[in-house]
Amino acid sequence: MLYLYCYCVPPQKSTTMKTLKITLLFCLVSVFSFAQVSQNQKAALVDLYNATNGDSWINSWDLEQPVSSWYGLTIENDSVVAIKMTFNGLVGTLPESISDLNNLVVLDLAFNRLEGELPNTLVDMVSLEELKLFSNSFSGGIPTDIGNLVNLKTLELYNNDLFGAIPSSIGNLKKLESLMLSSNLLMGTLPASISNLKSLKVLSVFDNNLFGTIPSSIAQLTELEELVLSNNAFYGNLPGVLAELKGLKTLLLSNNQFKGNYAVLKEALPNIVDFDLDEVNLKGSLATLDVEDED
Questions:
Q1: Is the dihedral of CA 107, 111, 114, 119 positive or negative?
Q2: Side-by-side strand order, sheet with 106-108
Q3: Is the N or C terminus of the chain more exposed, i.e. has fewer CB atoms within 10 Å?
Q4: What is residue 36's predicted lDDT score, i.e. its pLDDT?
């Protein structure tokens, strides 16, 4: 309980008390005004500003003002926990020092003109839950140790120029709900470790250079609502286990080399809404879909 005590101040002391109150007020204002992120975090933000042509951003930062006033930041307990700057005209690369924002939960820099490789230090940002870097011009590979980001729920890197294989460590992201890697230059097979992502709702890898068969263990993704594999070089018989994914609402498989009659699969999925068909897979008798073994 807060008690307020009132004292009668003699007239000759009133000026002194007034001065004391004003001094205390300025002290309080100073405390709140200068409560800022650490110098290490501020330096990382300035690096981001300099590396991405901050002077030309649509919503720029005044580096002379408190960090709390900078556009697109969310600060909690004197730490930057979110950076959201979509459509903000960022041009350049992500600096290695981005990892010094070690309490960052959301990094959303989609729809900008960022390029170069993703910094290796990105995998040290273990507090991240959302990593959205889609619709930029990033190149190079997905970091091999992307699986270190064990708190990720959203990984959206689509519409870039990323190449190479999808790292098998991606199977360590047990909390992942959305994995969107479409419209890149990715090669190799769909790693069997993806079947570890039991919380996954969206898996989209269309428009890459992926090949191979679909691992039958994909049936373990029981929460899956969207599976988008179109425009790759997948082959083999459609695994019949796809019919076990009863929650699927979107299944896009066209422009691959799959064998099997899609109509059988469609009939087995009660919630399907979006389903694409290749003409060749509409012909022939309705047959049971064969299960493909994992390589």
A1: positive
A2: 73-76, 79-84, 106-108, 130-132, 154-156, 178-180, 202-204, 226-228, 250-252, 274-275
A3: N
A4: 78
Rg over CA atoms, the chain: 27
Q: Which of 127, 164, 171 is nearest to 145 (CA)?
A: 171
Q: How many CB atoms lie within 10 A of CB 55?
A: 8
Burial class (CB within 10 angstroms; exposed 0-12, middle 13-18, buried 19+) of 69:
exposed
Q: Any idea what DSSP says for residue 257?
A: E
Alpha-carbon distance 257 to 118, whole Å?
Answer: 32
What DSSP string runs through 113-162? Answer: EEEEEPPGGGGG-TT-SEEE--SSEEESPPPTTGGG-TT-SEEE--SS--
In Å, how far from its chain's centre is CA 68?
Answer: 23
Specify the residue for token string 């590396």. Answer: 51
Note whether 224 and 245 are within 8 A (CB). yes
pLDDT tier, 260 (very low <50, low <70, confident <90, very high otherwise): confident
Burial (CB count within 10 angstroms: exposed 0-12, middle 13-18, buried 19+), residue 8:
exposed
Name all domains of the chain by residue range, CATH numbers in brackets.
38-127 (3.80.10.10), 140-295 (3.80.10.10)
Residue (of 21, 20, 86, 93) closest to 57 by Cα position = 86
- Tell me the C-alpha distance between 227 and 245, whole Å: 10
Torsion over CA of 282, 226, 117 and 145, rounded to 10 degrees?
-110
pLDDT in tens, 121-135: 999 999 999 999 999
User: Is the Cβ–Cβ distance between 138 and 116 less than 8 Å?
Assistant: yes
CA angle 239, 241, 246 (to 5 degrees): 130
